[in-house]
Amino acid sequence: MKATLREQIHTVIAAIPPGRVTTYGRVAAMTEASTPRLVARALRELPAGHGLPWYRVVTASRKLADHPGAAEQRERLAAEGVVLDDRGRVPEERLWP
Questions:
Q1: Is the CB of residue 54 less than 8 Å from the CB of residue 9?
Q2: Contact 14, 53 (CB under 8 A)
Q3: Does residue 18 sit within a domain?
Q4: What's the average model confidence in pLDDT over 65-73?
Q5: Residue 93 within a domain
Q6: Residue 26: which pLDDT band, with cuts at 50, 70 and 90?
Q7: From the centroid of its chain, how far is CA 39?
Q8: Domain range enclosing 33
Q9: pLDDT the model gives residue 18
């Protein structure tokens, strides 16, 4: 992945406000040439100690992706007031932008 694309993805993710989420696809659409899979890849490759709110990115169905950090993601979102519904989805009104 090109460094400029990675930087664009990181910039979009850094802009997600607390208490809001966006999808991999929405992040990709806000870049010049990304895809949801490239956004996921950029998140997987984040170095330890980074400050990006990676946990504010969810799937197109507004669910948490199946990954090792899903429990931490759920906890961080709950700490920001984002509670998943009975179907495990983020309420639509929490989507950004």
A1: no
A2: yes
A3: yes
A4: 95
A5: no
A6: very high
A7: 8
A8: 3-83
A9: 98
